[in-house]
Amino acid sequence: MEIKLNINGIDKLIDVKPHEFLVEVLRENGYLGVKKGCETGNCGLCTILIDDQPILSCSYLAVRAVGKKIETIEGLQEEATEIGAHLVDEGVDQCGYCSPGLVMNIIGMRRELENPTPEEARHYLTNNLCRCTGYVGQYRAIKRILGVAENDESC
Predict the structure, then answer these.
(1) Less Cβ around it within 10 Å: N or C end of the chain?
(2) Of 127, 124, 9, nearest to 74 (Cα)?
């Protein structure tokens, strides 16, 4: 079936199967920043934004995205580059496989929450599995990105 999706501000007609997940549709259409990992909604590699909210595209049917604003890391390069620089500064760029999903979650957090608490920041990371870091550097980077005071050790 053919559906109309708005991806990174561009309307596209895409042929999909009724049972096809958005991660597959996006990757098949060249959005390779959307990574595949667990395919069960547990690792966060496939995180994208739908109507400014981070979602796991491996468990989101493509047909549900009709009429919604889909954003991938390819469409958010300026924000992604800024956030990526903070991650690199904190040493959390080791293999980089989880980085696109993490960056998308941070962008979603910035858009959704004003002055997030450390608990809210941790909540956003719960769906981002990283096997290279201990998450401490990620928390430090998030604190810098969001402007949390350096002496705040809670995050």
Answers:
(1) N
(2) 9
